[in-house]
Amino acid sequence: MSSKMIMITCPICQDVFKKPKYLPCLHTFCESCLEGYITNISSICAKLDKLPASIFDNKPYVWTGDGFPCPVCRSHVQIHDNKIKSLEPARWTVAFPINQLVLSIMGYDSIPEEDSVCAPCEKIDDPKPAEDWCLECSEALCELCAKHHHVLKATDSHSVVKITELKDRKGPIHHDEIVECPEHAGCPLDTYCVDHNKVACSMCTKSEHSGCETVIAVEKVSGEIRNSSEALKLLDKLKECTEEAECIVLDRKRTVDKLGASKETVMIKVQQVRDEINNVLDELEGLLKEDLENTHSQVVTDLEDQIGRCHLLQKAVDSSRGVLQAAIEYGTDNELFVVAHRMEKEFHKYETVLEKETKDLHDMDYNFEQNYEIEHILLPLDEIGAVKVHKTPTIVSPFIKKHAIAKNRFDATSSMDERCAELTGGTFLPDDRLLLVDNANKKLKLFTPDGEMLSEFELSTAPWDITCIPGGMAAVTLPVEKKVMMVSGMNDCITPVDQFNTTGKCYGIAYSYYSRDLVVACDTPGDGMATVKVLSLNGDEVREISKDENGQSIIQRPSYVATNPFNADVYVSDDCNNTVIGVTMNGELKFVHTHPYLKLPVGIAADNHGCVYVCGNGSCDIHQMSRDGERIRLLMDGLTHPRAIAFDPYKERFLVTSDGSYKSTVQMYELS
């Protein structure tokens, strides 16, 4: 289903909305569909006392009489107005506002033909020219009928617009924003509390945020959201939720099929055992089959429950995507900020559900264990055997998905520094220590992973990048001197060992464990063409990578490079072109990766599985790519201008340096 159809399709009836109304979670439904749903839910709860488990906490929903679960995400929808609460549940829909944003999109799609006549007047054979259009009735109205439409009790809340406005616009018409407070009807969500990270109305502000230090108007913080990538990143994360939920659903269906076949195999084995023994075991055989059927029924029921929860999660995420997509494409800035803010909270709920469901994934099979005493038929028996469910963890993610868990963070500026540290590179040494490049203070600094400085070494010019090489050594680039320096970090001391010149200023550097060479990003003197050089550990130039097969330059401004641990591939971040380039050491161009979210790509590294990670210094995030240059996902965002990234070749961890306003920090992460 296209994003446009998701925006205007009711999740219940799967048809175009008819009088769309939205709940506090922003999920939208036809008013009649919502009425029918609430009626059915209240009737079911009257008989069962509780509903199936929620996707958020996996606990049965208990009917309390003061609200109902959202049809797609199962969040509790509280009815705050006591007058409405006293009505029949089917009439609770009056408490929820019409989704004017969706209505305006639908109105644009149903623009009337030229020279339309008033629909009510035409019914009484008195056709008059139509000047207005009712978005909810999808009818053309003359001036008089439009006035009556505004005052009649049945239609006084309908949205009526000028037909000329519909025809002149290239997008949805003006609409009321979705900013009404879910707890205080009629009060717009016009303030944002930074302390509680919450959007509130004036009533909420007085009652809940009167003592907060930072409460500002929404319009002051919403103006920049459309020009930023935050809403688009959130949309991308919601899409990831849908894809991963689909993977879980497919895996669970395959497991159900597998268990069905396995069940038949076990039944045959049971029959074979049964045929070998005396007829006196008929009763025991029956008991075992009954136990197997019950076990299978329970296991399949649990799997189907998980499938159902994931289907509900998909619906919830798709509905959220529709609302957010609508706000991005057609909403106002205030509306987009509010929707994105509230959807961020929904996303974290979805993410928690996915983590919980993923942890509960097991590949199951049945094993029949024959009772050893069956060989001694004359001995007393109480069973033929037992059916056990064998579970083993399984991976269903479509990519190598790992979570980065933040560990310790420290400032690399020492008391002897004249300036705040500017960490443009870092690497892991094999003895569990970090060697960092401080470009601002022209130093190399040796740290423990906990942030304890062991030693520092001052250079004559500013270094740029560093890479670990076998033997407890590291290679450092010195762009001004056009040199690569080899240093040792043994015995808590940084010691220069060797150095060699390069034909141009050298910046990013990486060691290839595959070819046992250094890969260095350089400027070529004379023509100014950027290049990547493959150098031996002695400084001999093995080859140069700069042009494609047509002789065109493939790199404009390489700042960092990385190598794949499994082959001879090289990855280059080109911050001038906002691209990541993949080439072989023979110069064959494999891919050029770009993405709207990735801005100023700088530090780049590959993990122990060959996945590539690049720091978006301008977009303040880290992107994960496959070794073929396909974007896997956004690993982290909201960082403070990440500069360099380095993976520990011996453990599942990495470091990221960040450019702050006053200092450069190191953040350690573990991959799980």
Features:
single chain; 672 residues; alpha+beta; Herpes Virus-1; 30s Ribosomal Protein S18; four-stranded antiparallel beta sheet; 12 helices; 38 strands; 30% strand
Describe this structure in words.
The chain is α+β, with helices and mostly antiparallel strands and 672 residues long. The chain is 29% helix and 30% strand. It has five domains: 3-99, Herpes Virus-1, CATH 3.30.40; 101-168, Irregular (30s Ribosomal Protein S18), CATH 4.10.640; 191-221, no CATH class; 232-393; 404-671, TolB, C-terminal domain (Neuraminidase, 6 Propeller). Mean pLDDT is 81; it is low at 170-175. It is globular. A four-stranded antiparallel beta sheet has the order 15-38-37-36, with no helix packed on it. A four-stranded antiparallel beta sheet has the order 16-17-18-19, with no helix packed on it. Strands 20-21-22-23 form a four-stranded antiparallel beta sheet, with no helix packed on it.
Helix content: 25-40%
Number of helices: 12
What is the H level of CATH, i.e. the homologous superfamily of the largest domain?
TolB, C-terminal domain
Numbering strands along the chain, what is their spatial order in the largest sheet?
15-38-37-36
**Major sheet details:** 4 strands, antiparallel
> How would you classify the helix and strand content by structural class?
alpha+beta
Name the poorly predicted regions.
170-175
CATH topology of the largest domain: Neuraminidase
Strand content: 25-35%
- What's the average pLDDT? 81
* Global outline: globular
